[in-house]
């Protein structure tokens, strides 16, 4: 299994080689933290041999505005949620990994002439600014070779990742104040890719789509590697707000209507109109990514679209996306192949929360030195 892309708060270097797992003993993994605009999600997983075991999982809501477009706005409130989760879940480990998304993160595929590892690292340091819209001194950089050229007449495909230092540092400072040790910063789309590869054990060409409260991550995988990754500022909270404002009802009731937890009743016609208007925008963004991929890879059709995130639970969304994209849409459960500590985790609760935990789970299967 290929390890996801880490963004290291150091000088550029290629740290993305596959991880060699021990098959004979339990391995210490990091705690996966997914800090979204609506909630903080935590996941703890144990690896023994070739098996994974889910030890702890949970989610805690944070106040509106505490995190906006991936930027930490109210670290105190987010910290409270993290402390509450660790306490309730009885997590003792201090080594954590987080993932980021939003305008402060740039993921770009570039094509370069074949170089040695040393030449490539030097080139990235010297020339990265031409590929990203930020001052090079204001970002952390990392990259991965996703297809190495075979000779001097060939070219290599590189996935370049840049993230604003001030955004990353705010998260790191908050975690360190909680006496936690952040050992890895990842990108949402790549964390999603990591857990998909782990849970599915498939090499199919797929589009991974994670719909959160305020953002959508799209990561297209072909031949076992990410070839297109993007974040889109749309999410399921947008749909809830539209329902609440149009029907003039409380946010909580709008949320339940959105998820189909209460009957639509007299609101049925209006709900269908709101759903179509909002979700059409989501599908347009998904189709843009798919069209771009197919334009560059006409001989590698996508087999399916894998849907996750809290927004994936919107009633009827799976069928709507399938109809509009023409793809088989798979509802992703990141824990489907894992053993579960049933003394600590209720299976019905896990079934409900699983789609929201994909990114946290993608972080939680990463190993760490203890």
Could you estimate the helical fraction of the residues in percent? 25-40%
Mean pLDDT: 85
CATH topology grouping of the largest domain: Nucleotidyltransferase, domain 5
Low-confidence stretches: 1-25
- The helix/strand class is alpha/beta
SS field, number of helical segments: 10
Strand elements, count: 17
What's the domain count? 2
SSE ordering: EEEEEEHEEHEEHEHEEEHHHEHEEHH
List key phrases describing it.
370 residues, alpha/beta, Nucleotidyltransferase, domain 5, 2 domains, seven-stranded mixed β-sheet, five-stranded mixed β-sheet, 10 helices, globular
Plain-language structure description:
This protein has 370 residues and is α/β, with parallel strands linked by helices. It has two domains: 7-104 and 163-200 and 337-370, ATPase, nucleotide binding domain (Nucleotidyltransferase, domain 5, 2-Layer Sandwich), CATH 3.30.420; 202-336, Nucleotidyltransferase, domain 5, CATH 3.30.420. Helices cover 34% and strands 28% of the residues. It contains ten helices and 17 strands. Strands 1, 2, 3, 4, 7, 11 and 17 form a seven-stranded mixed beta sheet that branches. A five-stranded mixed beta sheet has the order 14-13-12-15-16, with helices on both faces. A three-stranded antiparallel beta sheet has the order 8-10-9. A hairpin with a 4-residue loop joins strand 12 and strand 13. The chain is globular and about 65 Å long.
